[in-house]
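Quick check before the chapter quiz. The format below is the same one you will see on the exam, so make sure you can read both the input and the output lines.
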Amino acid sequence: MLAQHRRSGRHLARIRHRRGIRLDPHDHIAVCAPHGLDDLLEGVWRFNPTRVSPETSRQRLARHRPTERWPGIRIIT
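Here is the expected output.
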């Protein structure tokens, strides 16, 4: 599953959203986060320059309105 997640992550509009978490057969948590968890834990919304242009990112920001859903989020474009 994690290998599949690594491959599919490049399609995400926000690069730091690439993460996967699963519980293994021994009840251990396995985390795959190639770009870390800092943005998630610090409330940062950052676009993926390999997937979308800055203009497309701005359009998505206007559509999703993340600052209304999550007050205090930091947006980096």
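If your answer matched, good. The two ends are 30 Å apart (CA to CA).
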